[in-house]
Please model this.
Amino acid sequence: MGTILSTIAEQVGTITLKNGKVNPLSKALIDEIQLELEHMKSRSVRVVVLRAEKGVKVFSAGHDVTELPTNGRDPLTYNDPLRQLIRAIEKYPVPIIAMIEGSVWGGACELVMCCDLIVAAEDSTFAITPAKLGVPYDIYGMLNFIKVLDIHLLKEMLFGAQPVTAQRLAECGVVNRIATRDQLETATMNLAQQIKRTSPLVQCILKEELRVLSSASPLNPEAYERIQSLRREVYDSSDYQEGIRAFKEKRDPEFQGK
Ligand code: YXS
Model:
């Protein structure tokens, strides 16, 4: 235990990631976040802030790579801890603000982007990395990115797997506020105070309406099965094994396209 810090002050709950140097989204960390979200719900908080410790270089390095399966199982199934946390955040009855310092990687980008608002330090960056690691991202996760990012920006981030600045994402309407690191907490709390002044009942239904409507994508069974079979070809591939092996061996992957 002990992978997060949490406080509640004036009906604002703050969850701080504290899971080592790069906050990998391990099952242990995700379980703690979910427990704390339930606790804060019971304490009738009006807003939740999700952050890392002040001054971090890395907000989160994304899914804990050591927990990605290498035995032919789908790496991002419905019950994967990251998928569970993202659904919990989307269904949470009050707004959640992601307060970002440092770099955000892989599945942590989806986690941050599925929060309701993003306040980011001006020098923070976001890198969506499935292609770098050889991971066939899941359908619902891709829908979450499409909800937030214009398609050409999303393709640039997916195909290149390179960090993009918070400033650029703010210009594209993805990041709500940019601040200096020193002003980041103030900017976040100002936004939280604004939210606290409007109706919690209405906020709750608006958030749920937006969740339902933004996920109302018709996907016929044949299309679903076809995409899943394409994903299986990838997570059954030697490239998938190579991506994870290269990460663990701290070297660049040599993908062969098979
Ligand atoms: O060597 P030690 O034992 O100290 O461990 C190192 C890293 O192996 C470890 N670490 C991680 N462990 C589990 N899961 C991770 N995602 C992860 N990232 C890093 O943390 C220790 C310190 O890392 P190090 O030495 O590289 O720190 P740094 O400050 O030089 O660099 C920080 C990063 C974040 C730039 C660097 O660690 C990095 O590039 N990490 C991988 C970022 C990434 O590609 N994340 C995607 C994870 S997979 C995921 O989220 C999705 C499934 S998907 O692939 O679809 O996007």
